[in-house]
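ugh ok fine here u go
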Amino acid sequence: MTVKEEIPDRRLGKEVVGTTFKVYLHLLKVKQASARHVYRDLEMSSPWLATYHLDKLHNLKLVSKDVEGVYHVNPRRFGILRFFVVTGKWIVPRTLFYTFFFLAMAIYFLYSLPANWNVLTFTLVFIVVIINVVETIWFYKTLSRT
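structure:
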């Protein structure tokens, strides 16, 4: 494989699973770490295991390694990560933003529409808010299981 070729997202979703995915999530949060830091932070059984997963991520071009042995994350959206936004140290489901948007709409409609319309409109928008809250919780649980 040449340097310019990118690994397809479908392949990444199949290869980056389990502990390797947890290591990648950790690196998304901290941006850079050595194998020893990953070993300690994720409470792995040995530093060699951390090195194994970091090297696997390096081979998939998801991290780069400098001369001092520090791995730097190369953020990519693949698999379940397509449904998340990485902001600093936070990995947030996109549905959380939709929840706040529809909640603001519900509050706006409750106070701005005529009395005969606001209850129906508020109820419909509030149902959408509840659906988004359930989806957000489901995404967080799915991410924590992987």
